[in-house]
Amino acid sequence: MKLLIVEDEVDLLIAISNYLTKENYLCELADSFHKAEEKILLYEYDIILLDITLGDGNGLDLLKPIKKHNLKAGVIILSAKNSLDDKISGLDFGADDYMTKPFQLTELNSRIKALLRRRKFDGSHLVTFNEIALDTDSKTVIINQQRITLTRKEYELLLYFMINKNRVLTKEAIAEHLWEDNVDLSDNFDFIYTHMNNLRKKIKRCGGTDYIKTLYGMGYQFTDQ
Amino acid sequence: MKFLTKINRNFFMLFAAMLLFICIAGYFILQAMFLENARESLARKAVLIQNQIEKTGNLPQFDPLSQVYVIAKPTGKLNPSIKKIELFNSHEDELEPYAEYNKKVLIKGIYYNIQLREKTIEKDDLIFSLGVALFLLLVATFCISFFVNRRMNKTIWKGFEKNLLAIEQINFRNNEPLHLESTHINEFDRLNTIVYSLTNKLKEDYRSLKEFTENASHELQTPLAIISLNLEELLQQSMNEDAFKKTVSAINAVKRLSHLNQSLLLLAKIENNQFVALDEIAINEIVQRKLQELDPLFKAKKLHIELTVQSPFYWKINSQLVDILLNNMLSNAIHHNIIGGTILIIFEAHKLVICNTGEENNLTNENIFNRFVKGKSSSNGLGLAIVKQICETHHATISYEQTDLHCFTIITQQST
What pTM was estimated for this model as a whole? Predict the structure, then answer.
């Protein structure tokens, strides 16, 4: 998968690219409107991460050349402004998703994967981890050839874990992913334990391994190491 | 009270006081004048009588109007005197005022006293006629000032009133320039100049404040993003429990900071009316959907939900804001609830009540909606402030009452 990251804040650019490179994406970087425009005209990308406020231009203005020269590319806008106007005009001009800074890298990864699935890249609707297979088209989970039934939140939780396998996830990050910032959760994470325990039980019942590792009661890791 | 009315009232009262004073003074002046008049006429008559006595020696007697009698040699000078007396009139059966004139004369070695009397004007008559004059003058002044006012209202004050209306309707959001009419009156035109410069300054401040909030948001969010991303990467390295916990706590602190920043920005935006309400939204339907979404949260606290829809609740409100409003209110009802508690939601036409069980607190309707008031919760204390701000900008009131339950009531203005 080939990615273009457009972001004028170099620290942020490097942090994102380091992470996504580890996740086996091929990342190209552009730290200005000018460089981004050049790359968009010359090369093809699968995903473009686009910051709106660039030093030398408005990222939204890049959407037009993208749609002209890089039709295949999915676009995720990264904006510091949580502004509905920007969001609406961004999505209107052909962006696929919109994220407000600061965001979690795992959340970014999930959004990229979701976008790739929506764009129907080969086999991308199948997410597998050892004996667990998850089909994002039919929203089914198969463990050891056995189909298991999960609630919507349990399904989302498992998908999030599998996409961000081996990464340490804080329970706040998980809660925020499941509830998409809609609810001010601040001190109530009890429901996460419930989801987590139910998911563990259902996986074990089909003879699956419990890959969910708890870290000091504050974080989780989905790993077989 | 209108400026003109106020001036007129003061003027009228001063005028009335002056008139009253003039009337009282007039009363005494007139009395003195009448007496003087009587003295002059009686003095002439006395001279005539004196001449007649000198010629004929007869003493004319017309009691009580004129009496002449011989007196002993008076001491001192022979000065004529005049005084007011009252005599009884048997025809009219009342006392009447007279001027009495006494003149002592020496005719052919004999001293005479010539006493003449003349009826003067009655006190009551004088007061009455003065009162009528006063009243008529006042009525005339009142009428004149009334018509002058009406005319002034139509001419001089019209431009001023128009300008006042323009200032009242000033709105910095729609960026329309303020237009004030020139009134050709120095004071008003001066006021216009001041209002122009003030509004220009306000407009400029408003614009820069708006820019500032947006820029501040951007400038804050980007470093926050860098901190949060780097901490997240740090978390992936193997570390001991202490370092791990410190990192997680730093991540959460950054997250809270970013939430706080976003909430403050949201408040500013709602205050600036940057959200447009397009349609009447059936709030009860949205709540029903939200209750399903939040079900896992209810279950986690074993909460019992009672929803009563007596009538659909329609509200013309921005759809994004209604989402925030309901999220804040419902998460508030969950947060401050007890395990196994209840949430009551009641819809009536133009009224939404959300009640929850919970521990007693010392918050009141007056302070619960203030910013950064958060009781025992670990939230940022802006949730209810945002709710209140949304209500205020969408023609609704919200109130809080603590009885057995903690109840929030939203009442919308009934649109006609």
Answer: 0.63
